Amino acid sequence: MRRAIARAMMTAIVPVLLMVPFVSGCQSKSEKLVFEANDTAKKAMESSPDDREKLLNQARDMLHEAVKDDPKNLDAWKLLGQLDEVLGHPDDAGKDFNEASALDPTDQKLMQKARMYRAIQQMVDNANGALTQIKSGDTAGGMAALKDALLATHSKFTRDKVTAIIAQAVPLVAQTGDQQVKDKKYAAAVTTYDQAVRGYIMLAEAQGKHSLDPACDAVMHSANEAANSAGTPDATFRLLNDVLTFDPDNKTANLELAQVYLRRNPPDYDTAADLEERGGAPDAEVKKLRDEAKKHRKKR
User: Fold this and answer.
1) Is the CB of residue 9 less than 8 Å from the CB of residue 88?
2) For position 8, what pLDDT does the model report?
């Protein structure tokens, strides 16, 4: 996928790479390398997609050698930044444009590029900081910070970076809930599991999916069990309904919500039967609940 995206970017962006004027005559080793890299990029524009990528990577290697030979070669840094963008190396592109901007602080376009990449890096740093919070036990603060970081993203690259960090964070939050259950801190565990499930929803939305990661099933069940152990069986009612709002066909959410209705006093057998049916429970189990519902209606 990344390679396909890079190819599409090459087709669209390569023509703007050749912005650096070159003059013949006495040139340093670094200048000669930039000239060769620019010439190679020109050839890439006229090549097939596979050859284009190969040639652009060759040009990139030349530019790395050029800035190593002369770290103050502005043209090398500018062209390297563009190549790194086209080839799908945004982290490197940010460093390249930062170096170029430092060498020519009067170039507003370079300054804007450098600022943009610094802002992206700050978002990623904030997301990593949130992950550290979660690892230290502050699940609420960490998940809130990750949500803020995700909302602040304005590019696919940044969103992908933050989403990857959320994917690391959510299982850690669930593990914290598991430990709270072991410590018999059931009310705290319900809250923590709630954060984990909402993290899975956030993750699915960020990935453009309409269903939750299967790993969320166990977390919803654990949340329900913790709520029951805490003597607050209704504590997961809102959470499970929110899951079903996002993913109406989620079998586990339907089955777990059915348990919430069954734990009420008096139990709501009718609603529980409907939910279990949607959740794919065995026909015999659904029939049993409907029979119970009839019995209770007759007693009224």
Assistant:
1) yes
2) 41
